[in-house]
Amino acid sequence: MSRFWVFLGILVTLGWQVDLLLAYKDKICKHLIGELGDGQSKFIYCATTKSVPVNLCLGCELEYHNLRGEFEALLANANCSKQYLNSDRINIVATTQGILTELWQKANCDDCFQGNNSLTYNDLSSELDKCLTLPLHKNNVCFACKDQYVKLNTFYLTMEKSSMGQVCFDLQDNMNRTRLNWSKTLKCCQREVKLESFLIAVCVVVLLPILTFYSTVIVVTKRREANHGLLNEQEPELDAPSTSALITAALLSTRTAEPAVVSARTEKLAQVFNQTGAAYQSDDSGTEEHCLKPKVVSRAAPDTELDSSSDDEPALMPKVL
Fold it and tell me: 62 with 46: CB under 8 angstroms?
């Protein structure tokens, strides 16, 4: 009987210890997930409040590193990671962490902490800001602070080239605002287009094709006239008038005959044509009569001649008219 109570006491003790262990593990998981949620909320608050002007990378560095540490601690605990990660279709914890990590990477925040680029840029930017705020430079700020602006812009371009355009977004936003202030607010980058230069360029573009066309026409005309003179064994007359001018002058200098003279010439031509036609008709009639006259064969010729002629050509008896 005593052994039974001892065995029962041992079982109760073990069960109580197991319950304590499970409660402790559950408490640890809740603590870890609470710490992660608190870290995410702090990072979101920091990013939101430092969005304009953008100071996400340099201003929220501590919050982001705490956020990563708390998420890694949750992953290190197998029981907690199994309980809170991949437990449903939405996977809220992992999805939220992925969004915040993507925001950090999209801003190229890791570039801010490589080398001394951020420190050097901030020093140059501070020098420019001091120069712009000096009362002595109020009326001539563009000329007085030009060197500081050129140094800052040159350093940024060098940094952008070395990082293949993946510059820390904090520096990108600051440089964009600096350029906007320098060009539009202070109006230190005015590019005025002179009206005279524009008109000269337009005139050149319009007149150049016309001048080229007429120059080509003149050169070709001179060469043709020179070649024409050489073919006629004459010296080329480069100063001679053009062919079209000569034709026009010849037409203008031609005299116009009077109507009476023209009609007389026309009558003479008609008489000549009539006489020629009559003569031609008389010649034709004589020829036809000669062709229709029959051939008379002499009857006193011997029979042999008649026989031989009959062999050569058929015997035709002429009709006596």
Answer: no
